[in-house]
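FORM 12-B: Structure-to-Sequence Request
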């Protein structure tokens, strides 16, 4: 009686992100480990997820809202500013931590085999643990300002979160791969995170770019998924909390063209990140 032999697989290689869904229990353990390590020995613990964005918001609000007087020229500038900060911090935490996830767990990777994708993906869920409380604070501020969103704006909020999460994870997996072989990659990650806040309309209005820069630059500006995601958040959170609904100029083709383009770029980045990660993960242990 003949039996078919099981399919042989190259040692040290898996099925990419599919292995994450097939190892949900391991993913939960890795997420718990990341949270425990991050706050080990701290006094405030998870309160840091409130304190850091609060200080960041305070600095930017004083600099941009008071000194540059954007607070006077824009209704509910505090909500406008905080909605962008919340989203850009979400991007920065996923991207920064996932890009270092393989080198930070090098000791574990050299001892046992487990799907390497668990480490960058776990940082996405850790970032969500910090993102949700900040989002609740934003919602409370919006409700206190008379927030009245419609169904379309709820969809825009969800689309903004999806764009940032997918794009940041894709970039994180790309740089996590590079970081194993070239430690200079961490410096590029730091520069990208530094530029990200200013390369999107977090602190200022998108109309300033439209007025001051040539048309070709404006199109490149909106080809950045973070720019689209931030404007989707402004459209969903900030605009319904103001009286500007009738005459505020939402970016042209935001939902019809730029959002599909941003989703395409985000998922394309994730596909590229997963491809590179799978291509080189067999060499991670020996390089580390």
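FORM 12-B RESPONSE
SEQUENCE OUT:
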């Amino acid at each position: 009686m003949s039996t078919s032999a099981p399919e042989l697989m190259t040692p040290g290689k898996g099925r990419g992100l599919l292995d994450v869904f097939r190892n949900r229990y391991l993913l939960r353990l890795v997420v718990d480990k990341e949270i425990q390590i991050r706050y080990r020995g701290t006094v405030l613990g998870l309160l840091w997820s409130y304190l850091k964005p609060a200080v960041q918001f305070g600095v930017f609000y004083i600099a941009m809202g008071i000194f540059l007087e954007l607070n006077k020229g824009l209704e509910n500038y505090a909500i406008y500013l905080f909605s962008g900060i919340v989203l850009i911090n979400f991007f920065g935490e996923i991207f920064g931590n996932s890009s270092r996830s393989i080198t930070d767990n090098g000791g574990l990777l050299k001892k046992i085999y487990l799907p390497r994708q668990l480490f960058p993906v776990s940082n996405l869920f850790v970032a969500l643990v910090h993102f949700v409380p900040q989002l609740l604070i934003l919602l409370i501020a919006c409700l206190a300002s008379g927030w009245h969103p419609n169904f379309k704006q709820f969809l825009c909020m969800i689309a903004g979160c999806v764009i940032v999460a997918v794009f940041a994870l894709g970039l994180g997996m790309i740089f996590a791969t590079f970081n194993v072989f070239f430690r200079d990659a961490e410096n590029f990650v730091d520069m990208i995170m530094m530029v990200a806040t200013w390369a999107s309309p977090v602190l200022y209005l998108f109309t300033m770019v439209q007025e001051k820069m040539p048309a070709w630059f404006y199109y490149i500006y909106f080809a950045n998924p973070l720019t689209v995601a931030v404007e989707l958040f402004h459209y969903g959170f900030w605009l319904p909390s103001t009286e500007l609904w009738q005459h505020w100029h939402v970016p042209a083709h935001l939902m019809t063209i730029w959002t599909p383009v941003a989703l395409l770029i985000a998922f394309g980045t994730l596909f590229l990140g997963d491809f590179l990660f799978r291509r080189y993960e067999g060499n991670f242990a020996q390089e580390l």
